[in-house]
Specification:
Helix content is 34%, strand content 10%. The protein has 102 residues and is of the alpha+beta class. It has a two-stranded antiparallel ribbon with strand order 1-2. The longest helix is centred in the middle third of the chain and has 12 residues. The termini are far apart.
Length: 102
């Protein structure tokens, strides 16, 4: 058992979302994931890629489908895209970044 949660319940998820008092969420990868992958023989580069997949990129830059280019072509302004980009780390899911109340 690891000390990876703020409560007494066991930690089953790879990713957790903690609601912030000021609004938004904080995304946390299970801290046991990196050492477990290393113990299974994954290389540092493979571990990095797996964690990136689990956590997401938290950015619109270089994203495969919903990215700066595609959103700009859809009519978003640079100011709107910058605001969305800035809000991404605190979003529970990407669709929340596009809500009017973000």
């Amino acid at each position: 058992m690891d000390c990876d949660t703020t409560g007494v319940e066991p930690d089953f998820a790879l990713v957790k979302f903690k609601k912030l008092a000021g609004g938004g969420y904080f995304k946390i990868a299970n801290q046991s994931l990196r050492p477990a992958l290393a113990n299974l023989g994954y290389t540092a580069e493979q571990i990095h890629e797996i964690l990136r997949y689990v956590m997401g990129t938290l950015t619109l830059h270089d994203a495969p489908h919903v990215n700066y280019q595609s959103l700009k072509q859809a009519g978003f302004t640079v100011a709107e895209l910058d605001a969305i980009e800035e809000s991404l780390p605190a979003q529970f899911e990407i669709s929340f970044a596009f809500s009017p109340g973000r």
